[in-house]
């Protein structure tokens, strides 16, 4: 990977916790499954052994991915809420009402929780904007006009 990964402080902590759980709990559990499957005898036709080895490969891949992300993570300091940046929550007015989004790094994005990546079309359009700014974003339904009404 080796590119800088932008995260909120909370997002970085969440990834560190996930990495710790994989190393401290999941890795030993998978190793135990492999050991028990080997003790069953012939591993060439042992579905439990094959399944455990596949899980081990997944766990090791996830550990490697998380270590790389954490190593290259850059957390964004809390701003002064004068402009939109990673970590801020921004309330916008759009046709039909208001919506609040939390601007996060790409690793943390979760549209169901209104956490949008700073790299997404809307997130990128919001970056650097101030209260009162209006802008348009091309969406599947056409151009939408947004106005920033609150940054926190």
Strand and helix layout:
Layout: E1 5-7, H1 9-39, H2 47-71, E2 73-75, E3 89-94, E4 97-104, E5 115-117, H3 121-126, E6 134-139, E7 142-151
Parallel strand pairs: 1-2, 4-5
Antiparallel strand pairs: 3-4, 3-7, 6-7
Helix pairs in contact: 1-2
Report on this model:
The protein is an alpha/beta fold and 152 residues long. The chain has 2 domains: 5-75, Transcription elongation factor, GreA/GreB, N-terminal domain (Helix Hairpins), CATH 1.10.287; 89-151, Transcription elongation factor, GreA/GreB, C-terminal domain (Chitinase A, domain 3). 41% of the residues lie in helices and 26% in strands. It contains 3 helices and 7 strands; from the N terminus they run βααββββαββ. It has helices spanning 9-39, 47-71, 121-126, and strands spanning 5-7, 73-75, 89-94, 97-104, 115-117, 134-139, 142-151. It has a 5-stranded mixed sheet. Strands 1-2 form a two-stranded parallel ribbon. Strand 3 and strand 4 (97-104) form a beta hairpin. Helix 1 (9-39) runs antiparallel to helix 2 (47-71). The protein is elongated, with a radius of gyration of 22 Å. The model has no long low-confidence stretch (mean pLDDT 89).
Poorly predicted runs of 5 or more residues = none
CATH class wording of the largest domain: Mainly Alpha
Structural class: alpha/beta
Radius of gyration: 22 Å
> How many domain modules?
2
Reported for the largest beta sheet, the result is:
5 strands, mixed
Please give the number of β-strands: 7
Task: Report the mean per-residue pLDDT as an integer.
Answer: 89
Strand order of the largest sheet: 5-4-3-7-6
- What is the CATH third-level topology name of the largest domain? Helix Hairpins
**CA(first)-CA(last) distance:** 32 Å
CATH architecture of the largest domain: Orthogonal Bundle
The CATH superfamily of the largest domain is identified as: Transcription elongation factor, GreA/GreB, N-terminal domain
Helix content: 40-55%
């Amino acid at each position: 990977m080796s590119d800088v990964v932008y995260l909120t402080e909370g997002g970085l902590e969440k990834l560190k916790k996930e990495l710790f759980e994989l190393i401290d709990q999941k890795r030993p559990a998978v190793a135990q499954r492999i050991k028990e499957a080997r003790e069953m005898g012939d591993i060439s036709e042992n579905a439990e052994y094959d399944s455990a080895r596949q899980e081990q490969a997944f766990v090791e891949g996830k550990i490697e991915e998380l270590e790389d992300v954490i190593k290259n993570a850059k957390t964004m300091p809390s701003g002064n809420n004068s402009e939109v940046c990673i970590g801020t929550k921004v309330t916008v007015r759009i046709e039909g009402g208001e919506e609040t989004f939390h601007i996060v790094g790409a690793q943390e994005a979760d549209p169901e929780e209104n956490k949008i990546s700073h790299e997404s079309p809307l997130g990128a359009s919001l970056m650097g904007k101030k209260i009162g700014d209006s802008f348009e974003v091309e969406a599947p339904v056409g151009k939408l006009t947004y106005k920033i009404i609150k940054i926190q």
